[in-house]
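#random but structural
TW: two for the price of one
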Amino acid sequence: MRSEMSDEERLALEAEMHRLNIEHRDLDAAIAALEQLGSFDQLQIQRLKKRKLHLRDRLNVLSNKLTPDIIA
């Protein structure tokens, strides 16, 4: 298995991470807005939070791909 990725692959991963970070922040804002309304739909908020957690997991996977393994 090759250990190095091309510049093109690295740029694609960084672009995806950027997009996911934006979506994560947008979900944060949407959840906060729904909670401030007072009469919020708890199921909708749970779905948004679940999506947010999924995005965070995906961001961690991508980050691990971009960060080289260092053998101590």
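TW: number two ↓
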Amino acid sequence: MVITMGCGDACPVFPGRRYLDWTLADPAGQGIAAVRPIRDEIEVRIRGLLADLLPTV
């Protein structure tokens, strides 16, 4: 699984891998108040991805 975050064609390609492109705001140069919602969105997406990938017990 390869997750990209808006790098488009600039991202390296690893043949045979599943790709997801998550469009997120760029935190570069942002203050903590702007970065926290981005961090929280990444956490939500990772938790959702894990729920999809891992079998339920």
